[in-house]
Design brief:
binds zinc ion; 247 residues; 7-stranded mixed sheet; Rossmann fold; 19% strand; alpha/beta; 9 strands
Length: 247
């Protein structure tokens, strides 16, 4: 990882600072960008971490991993501008080879201790597959591993000063994240009204041009999902999470 820049801590104690952490460019835009954009509109600061380089995500026979890495980072930066992100940290681990190891956890802990988020959003490490529909769904190995690494980094690693004590010498102090949100595409739990930010979510996703042969199909899918989640609460569009409030 490139050196983590030293950024100011939370800008206000009563405002959210959000850190959304995905395995690939586009993961958080699918799962959480409506929520992120809405909270930024309300005054929050928001950051992304993208753990892998996205170098496997193309079936184009002319594409190389080197070109794809650059293209996908640019796409994610463009999406980040649409959402109003303050910064994006690219960790550049090889796509599809992510492991929830100490190296990855330390990288995440260091960023948590640097930007001091109140809210961390990531993927659900317990979601392995779905056989409920045909075709079914195997959750990508990187999605499971980023969820696990983030969960461990948030609790207890970032909290404990004797975990990665070398951070102290760099001026970083332990940090307690207040809430952890796991993207949940299945069972309605913690629904966030994204009616006001749904268009930003669509435009952020549209920025990932290399990933879609048919964006209209993607648009139909995300619209149907956000409308279905919204219905139970009377929202036009909603994103859904499993929410863990930490001690
Ligand atoms: Zn992904």
């Amino acid at each position: 990882m490139s050196k983590v820049r030293v950024l100011p801590g939370p800008h206000s104690m009563d405002k959210k600072t959000i850190l959304a952490i995905g395995a690939h460019p586009d993961d958080m835009d699918f799962g959480a960008s409506g929520t992120v954009a809405k909270w930024v509109e309300e005054g929050a600061k928001a950051y992304y971490i993208i753990a892998t380089d996205g170098s496997k995500g193309s079936s184009d026979p002319q594409m190389t991993s080197e070109r794809l890495i650059k293209i996908r980072q640019e796409e994610q930066k463009k999406a980040g501008q649409i959402l109003g992100l303050s910064d994006i940290f690219f960790l550049n681990h090889p796509d599809t080879e992510l492991t929830a190891d100490k190296i990855l956890k330390e990288e995440i802990v260091k960023i948590i201790r640097t930007i001091k988020p109140t809210t961390v959003i990531t993927m659900n490490p317990t979601f392995y597959y779905s056989a409920a529909t045909e075709p079914g769904f195997v959750n990508h190995t990187d999605h499971r591993n980023i969820g696990l690494a983030v969960m461990d980094a948030v609790f207890p690693m970032a909290r404990d000063r004797l975990t990665f004590p070398q951070h102290e010498a760099e001026g970083l102090t332990p940090w307690k994240v207040k809430e952890l949100l796991l993207v949940n595409f299945t069972t309605p739990e913690y629904l966030v009204d994204i009616s006001s930010s749904f268009n930003k979510k669509v435009e952020a996703l549209r920025a990932h041009t290399s990933q879609f042969d048919d964006f209209d199909e993607v648009l139909q899918r995300i619209t149907a999902r956000s409308e279905t989640f919204g219905k139970s609460k009377g929202y036009k569009h909603a994103e859904n999470f499993t929410r863990i409030v930490l001690p």
